[in-house]
Input
Amino acid sequence: MTHTTLPSLLTYFKETVQQTNIHLSVKKSIDRLLASTPSWPALTIGDLVAPTPIIQGGMGVGISLSGLASAVANAGGIGVIAANGIGLMEKGYFQDGQAANIRALRSEIKKARSLTDGIIGVNIMVAISDFDQFLAVCIEERVDLIFLGAGLPIKGMPVTQLREANIKVVPIVSSARAASMIFRMWEKLYNDIPDAIVVEGPKAGGHLGFTAEQLDDPAYQIERLVVEVVDALRPFESSRGSAIPVIAAGGVYSGADIHRLLCLGASAVQMGTRFVATKECDADIHFKEAYIKARKEDIGLIDSPVGMIGRAIRNRFITDSEAGLRPAFRCAYQCLSSCKAQEAHYCISIALNNARKGTMESGFVFAGTNAYRIKRIVAVADLVDELLVGYQRAALGRLTRLLRRFERLKADYATIEAQVASLASVYEELILRSLPEQAKRAKAHYRRACLGLERIRLALGETIAQGAALMKA
Ligand SMILES: Cc1cc2nc3c(=O)[nH]c(=O)nc-3n(C[C@H](O)[C@H](O)[C@H](O)COP(=O)(O)O)c2cc1C
Output
């Protein structure tokens, strides 16, 4: 900004001096932020509002059923029943697997509904043979959401029926590329788009959408993926005119983790491992204790018969299978057409179901990289409280760092403010003494000092904006 006349320069000077008080209002706002208890933001997906921005990841076989899902929903989060292999808990599974699956899923949804008024979803593997049948049950029972992983839910989706039943669709992906492909194809095929997305990073438990080489590569870590998926979905947000929540999963352990991921643009997190070690988790106590006993080095990879790698607590069952030492078995029900159970020397559904029942020698336990950090089994409500406290601590820590920055900026501001005032009087003095050359130089100094003030004011404004965003995040 140039001031060619003295009056305009003096007006600018006066305004600048008046605005020096801006730091007082900034300070007040930061103090206000620090005085309040920062809470996490609710997760909104369409007309669903979860006050706790945590989705309990669907965990098959039978690890997340109505018990765990309803407890999480009662704690304000989203509880998820895993559909995969659910019929194994029914008597007639080996006679008619599909009928057993349908019966069991319906019964668990009804049970969950009787235990909570909260939000209940169902997790279904896209590649599963009973995918359509599972979807039909979800539609009939009007679950709140469906989470669709292990494949891209693109072709043959009953979108009209899902919308009529007011069911939100949430694909699970491992990359921004997969996310935008699903959204693009949905627009083309259905003139519609999914309601939210889960992006799962390589530290998760269960099947993973990565190669073994990608697992430790910084380019595939969840912090990077979240930012990429948020960016990839931005064009779809503009066309829909509302936000598309991105939910971060894989290795989320503490409230500080949740805070970090929300600051990166996630709207919520999905957690599996931590919910296994809860009283309400539907697995047998031996399954939960496997987590408590696990050492860091016990958690490793398996080549799953379903054609993906998976993260599990490696045990004798796994090493025996890898060595070809498991006895022959009969596949009772080809639940996944691409399954290579014979090559792997075991059926994964049966192995996981055995572990669920506590028969650990005939199965194994999926677990995320952080499972070894868990030391006790707690109630879901207590776990959620612990996570909230951790989140609040992290938010306050960040605010405190912002306040320190603010104080430094304020000190700089005071110094330059004094310079501005002194340069202004020097300038006025030189004008009064009719020394135009010196006055010109003083004016240049004065302008530079004003610019410095301006920069600090901007930085102060940025500090407060970050503080406000932090309170929202
Ligand atoms: C025991 C166990 C079973 C799982 N089963 C499934 C499943 O059936 N379908 C699915 O999409 N994800 C499954 N997952 C992944 C979770 O839904 C969730 O995304 C993941 O656990 C998040 O990472 P975390 O374990 O580090 O929290 C499973 C995870 C675990 C630990």
